[in-house]
């Protein structure tokens, strides 16, 4: 299995485990193609970026962002950074649909 697929599956599992009690319409992790500068063990490193996306909807035609409590977001961030050392940045997408779509391409 390709490395990026393994990384994304780990991140998705973490997001789903931590957000499931909120019962969103859809929650996912997105692995961006871009890299970010981070610091690991006191040295500069270039690593991956994960975006957390969680939305509420009735029909997928319109969606609002799930109001994830800050402590839950911090726990997701901490788990992703600890369990997936290749990730140096975790973002939370707050864009509704429309204008955005739920998924990333």
UniProtKB/TrEMBL annotation:
Gene Ontology MF, one: GMP synthase activity
* Keywords for the protein's UniProt record, in alphabetical order: ATP-binding, GMP biosynthesis, Ligase, Nucleotide-binding, Purine biosynthesis
Q: Please indicate if the UniProt record lists Metal-binding as a keyword.
A: no
A GO cellular component annotation here is:
cytosol
Gene3D superfamilies given for it? 3.30.300.10
The GMP synthase C-terminal domain covers which part of the protein? 25-104
Q: Which InterPro entries match?
A: GMP_synth_C
Question: Do the record's keywords include Magnesium?
Answer: no
Recorded hits in PANTHER family, A to Z, give: GMP SYNTHASE [GLUTAMINE-HYDROLYZING], GMP SYNTHASE-RELATED
Can you say what this protein is called? GMP synthase C-terminal domain-containing protein
- Natural source organism: marine sediment metagenome
